[in-house]
Amino acid sequence: MADRPLEIEVDFSDPYKRTAIFIKDGKTFYGLWNPIEVTLDGDEEEYTIPQGMQGSLDLIADEFYEDRGLWTIIAHANKIDFPHEDVTAGMTILIPKPEKVRAALLASNGRIANQ
After folding, report:
1. Alpha-carbon distance 83 to 7, whole Å?
2. Partners of 43 in beta bridges
3. Lowest CB count within 10 Å: 2, 32, 62, 88, which one?
4. Of 20, 32, 30, whose CA–CA distance to 55 is shortest?
5. CB neighbours (10 Å) of residue 87?
6. Bridge pairing between strands 92-95 and 45-48
7. What are the phi and psi torsion angles at 21 (to 5°)?
């Protein structure tokens, strides 16, 4: 079966509403087809998802990078396909260092991670 967009309804305030959703091999995931590559070398910060922040990679990106749109970098670094389902309270994720994210963005000519 070919990958295809999936139409779903989302809340107007949902930060992921503009991200394509795909189904591949029976699994639904956000369309991170062209992610920004950030080098992970073991000096990433570990972050435990607090209660009430499950599914909110955009808020975590805002906290660490001051840019909610960089949630895709955190998702890609942690192999998270569908934040609403995959990011749960108590889960520990890796947060790439802001300077590595800036370097990766410069190397990509400022391309946003999910374009």
Report:
1. 17
2. none
3. 2
4. 30
5. 21
6. antiparallel
7. -115, 135
The encoded tokens of residue 80 equal 């998270």
Find residue 48's DSSP bridge partners: 92
pTM of the predicted protein model: 0.69
The arrangement of secondary structure in 36-107, i.e. its CATH architecture, is Roll (3.10)
Residue range 2-50, pLDDT digits in tens: 555 555 555 545 555 556 666 667 766 565 556 677 888 899 999 999 9
Q: What is the DSSP letter of 70?
A: G
Which amino acid is located at 9 in the chain? E
Long-range contacts of 28-31 (CB under 8 A, 24+ apart): 28/81, 28/82, 29/81, 29/82, 30/72, 30/75, 30/81, 30/82, 30/83, 30/114, 31/114
For the chain, what is the total number of helices (H) and then of strands (E)?
A: 4, 4
**Distance in angstroms (rounded) separating the CA atoms of residues 54 and 50:** 7
